[in-house]
Design goal:
VC0467-like; mainly beta; 12% helix; 4 helices
Length: 179
Protein backbone atom coordinates (compact mmCIF):
# COMPACT_ATOMS: atom_id res chain seq x y z
CA UNK A 1 0.00 0.00 0.00
CA UNK A 2 1.30 3.50 -0.78
CA UNK A 3 2.51 5.33 2.30
CA UNK A 4 0.49 8.38 1.26
CA UNK A 5 -2.65 8.40 -0.81
CA UNK A 6 -2.71 11.18 -3.37
CA UNK A 7 -6.43 10.77 -4.10
CA UNK A 8 -7.96 14.20 -4.52
CA UNK A 9 -4.70 15.75 -5.70
CA UNK A 10 -3.57 16.78 -9.14
CA UNK A 11 -0.88 14.83 -10.95
CA UNK A 12 0.87 17.29 -13.22
CA UNK A 13 3.03 15.92 -16.02
CA UNK A 14 6.64 17.09 -15.86
CA UNK A 15 8.47 18.00 -19.08
CA UNK A 16 9.92 14.48 -19.33
CA UNK A 17 6.48 13.23 -20.41
CA UNK A 18 6.30 14.16 -24.07
CA UNK A 19 3.69 11.86 -25.61
CA UNK A 20 -0.10 12.25 -25.73
CA UNK A 21 -2.36 12.03 -23.89
CA UNK A 22 -0.15 12.84 -20.90
CA UNK A 23 2.18 15.55 -22.26
CA UNK A 24 1.42 18.71 -20.24
CA UNK A 25 -1.56 17.00 -18.67
CA UNK A 26 -3.25 17.70 -15.37
CA UNK A 27 -4.88 14.59 -13.89
CA UNK A 28 -7.33 14.56 -11.00
CA UNK A 29 -6.57 11.41 -8.99
CA UNK A 30 -9.90 9.88 -8.01
CA UNK A 31 -8.44 6.82 -6.28
CA UNK A 32 -4.97 5.86 -5.05
CA UNK A 33 -4.43 2.86 -2.83
CA UNK A 34 -2.72 -0.54 -2.74
CA UNK A 35 -4.59 -1.65 -5.88
CA UNK A 36 -3.22 1.26 -7.95
CA UNK A 37 -4.53 4.63 -9.02
CA UNK A 38 -7.31 6.01 -11.22
CA UNK A 39 -7.79 9.54 -12.45
CA UNK A 40 -9.06 11.68 -15.30
CA UNK A 41 -7.10 14.07 -17.51
CA UNK A 42 -8.67 17.50 -17.07
CA UNK A 43 -7.17 19.38 -20.01
CA UNK A 44 -7.90 17.19 -23.05
CA UNK A 45 -11.20 18.37 -24.57
CA UNK A 46 -12.33 16.58 -27.71
CA UNK A 47 -14.44 18.04 -30.52
CA UNK A 48 -17.46 15.98 -29.46
CA UNK A 49 -20.36 18.02 -28.12
CA UNK A 50 -21.98 16.31 -25.14
CA UNK A 51 -25.43 17.49 -26.23
CA UNK A 52 -25.08 15.41 -29.42
CA UNK A 53 -24.90 12.28 -27.26
CA UNK A 54 -26.72 13.25 -24.06
CA UNK A 55 -29.11 16.11 -24.91
CA UNK A 56 -31.02 15.71 -21.64
CA UNK A 57 -28.10 17.03 -19.55
CA UNK A 58 -27.20 20.04 -21.68
CA UNK A 59 -28.37 22.68 -19.18
CA UNK A 60 -26.04 21.65 -16.33
CA UNK A 61 -22.82 21.08 -18.30
CA UNK A 62 -19.75 23.17 -17.59
CA UNK A 63 -18.26 25.13 -20.48
CA UNK A 64 -16.94 23.97 -22.79
CA UNK A 65 -19.79 21.45 -23.14
CA UNK A 66 -17.51 18.93 -24.81
CA UNK A 67 -16.54 15.36 -24.00
CA UNK A 68 -13.04 15.32 -22.47
CA UNK A 69 -10.53 12.53 -23.01
CA UNK A 70 -10.15 11.26 -19.46
CA UNK A 71 -7.34 8.91 -20.40
CA UNK A 72 -6.38 5.98 -22.59
CA UNK A 73 -8.10 3.26 -20.52
CA UNK A 74 -11.63 2.22 -21.58
CA UNK A 75 -12.15 5.22 -23.83
CA UNK A 76 -15.59 3.85 -24.76
CA UNK A 77 -16.66 4.30 -21.12
CA UNK A 78 -17.98 7.65 -19.89
CA UNK A 79 -17.30 9.07 -16.45
CA UNK A 80 -19.48 11.96 -15.29
CA UNK A 81 -17.88 14.22 -12.68
CA UNK A 82 -20.10 16.70 -10.90
CA UNK A 83 -19.71 19.44 -8.34
CA UNK A 84 -22.25 20.52 -5.78
CA UNK A 85 -22.26 20.87 -2.01
CA UNK A 86 -25.46 18.81 -1.66
CA UNK A 87 -25.06 16.58 -4.71
CA UNK A 88 -25.95 12.88 -4.52
CA UNK A 89 -22.69 11.30 -5.68
CA UNK A 90 -22.55 7.77 -7.01
CA UNK A 91 -18.99 7.82 -5.70
CA UNK A 92 -17.54 10.83 -3.84
CA UNK A 93 -13.97 11.92 -4.45
CA UNK A 94 -11.42 13.18 -1.94
CA UNK A 95 -12.49 16.72 -2.92
CA UNK A 96 -15.47 17.45 -0.68
CA UNK A 97 -17.81 18.84 -3.36
CA UNK A 98 -16.74 16.70 -6.36
CA UNK A 99 -17.71 13.15 -7.24
CA UNK A 100 -18.81 10.70 -9.89
CA UNK A 101 -22.42 11.27 -10.88
CA UNK A 102 -25.10 8.80 -11.95
CA UNK A 103 -26.67 10.49 -14.99
CA UNK A 104 -29.87 8.50 -14.43
CA UNK A 105 -30.57 10.46 -11.22
CA UNK A 106 -31.77 14.07 -10.95
CA UNK A 107 -29.01 16.60 -11.56
CA UNK A 108 -30.71 19.54 -9.82
CA UNK A 109 -28.13 19.84 -7.02
CA UNK A 110 -25.16 20.19 -9.37
CA UNK A 111 -23.27 23.40 -9.99
CA UNK A 112 -21.02 21.80 -12.61
CA UNK A 113 -20.89 18.65 -14.71
CA UNK A 114 -18.22 17.34 -17.06
CA UNK A 115 -18.14 14.12 -19.11
CA UNK A 116 -14.90 12.19 -19.63
CA UNK A 117 -14.32 9.39 -22.13
CA UNK A 118 -12.04 6.86 -20.50
CA UNK A 119 -9.66 7.32 -17.61
CA UNK A 120 -6.02 7.12 -16.64
CA UNK A 121 -5.01 4.08 -14.63
CA UNK A 122 -1.90 2.82 -12.87
CA UNK A 123 -1.23 -0.69 -11.58
CA UNK A 124 -0.03 -1.22 -7.99
CA UNK A 125 3.26 0.64 -7.42
CA UNK A 126 3.32 1.93 -11.03
CA UNK A 127 2.46 5.51 -10.09
CA UNK A 128 5.01 5.45 -7.26
CA UNK A 129 7.70 4.37 -9.76
CA UNK A 130 6.72 7.17 -12.15
CA UNK A 131 6.81 9.68 -9.30
CA UNK A 132 10.28 8.42 -8.27
CA UNK A 133 11.61 8.92 -11.80
CA UNK A 134 10.29 12.50 -11.84
CA UNK A 135 7.50 12.04 -14.38
CA UNK A 136 4.83 13.75 -12.25
CA UNK A 137 4.44 16.53 -9.74
CA UNK A 138 1.81 16.28 -7.00
CA UNK A 139 -0.11 19.55 -6.59
CA UNK A 140 -3.04 20.42 -4.34
CA UNK A 141 -6.27 20.25 -6.30
CA UNK A 142 -9.14 22.66 -6.31
CA UNK A 143 -12.59 21.92 -7.65
CA UNK A 144 -12.76 25.07 -9.77
CA UNK A 145 -9.88 23.78 -11.93
CA UNK A 146 -11.69 20.47 -12.41
CA UNK A 147 -14.48 22.35 -14.19
CA UNK A 148 -12.49 25.27 -15.65
CA UNK A 149 -13.85 26.70 -18.89
CA UNK A 150 -10.34 27.46 -20.11
CA UNK A 151 -8.21 24.32 -20.20
CA UNK A 152 -5.47 25.31 -22.66
CA UNK A 153 -3.40 26.93 -19.91
CA UNK A 154 -4.40 24.62 -17.03
CA UNK A 155 -0.94 23.04 -16.93
CA UNK A 156 0.72 26.45 -16.51
CA UNK A 157 -1.86 27.74 -13.99
CA UNK A 158 -1.51 24.59 -11.90
CA UNK A 159 2.28 24.62 -11.68
CA UNK A 160 2.37 28.37 -11.01
CA UNK A 161 0.69 27.71 -7.66
CA UNK A 162 2.73 24.57 -6.86
CA UNK A 163 5.23 24.51 -4.00
CA UNK A 164 9.00 24.83 -4.19
CA UNK A 165 10.76 25.28 -7.51
CA UNK A 166 8.01 23.77 -9.66
CA UNK A 167 6.67 27.23 -10.71
CA UNK A 168 9.96 27.85 -12.52
CA UNK A 169 8.70 25.45 -15.20
CA UNK A 170 5.69 27.64 -16.04
CA UNK A 171 7.64 29.18 -18.93
CA UNK A 172 9.12 25.88 -20.10
CA UNK A 173 8.56 25.70 -23.87
CA UNK A 174 6.35 22.99 -25.35
CA UNK A 175 9.19 22.13 -27.72
CA UNK A 176 12.53 22.99 -26.08
CA UNK A 177 14.43 22.28 -29.32
CA UNK A 178 12.63 25.23 -30.94
CA UNK A 179 13.87 27.57 -28.24
Amino acid sequence: MPETSFAGRFLVATPIITTPPFARSVVLLLEHDESGAIGVVLNQPTNLAVQDHLPEIDGVLSDPALVFLGGPVSSETAIALGRGSSADFLRPSALADVGIIDLEKPLDDLDDLRIFAGYAGWDPDQLEAELAEGAWWIVLANSSDVFAAETDDLWVRTIERAPGTIPLYATYPTDPSAN
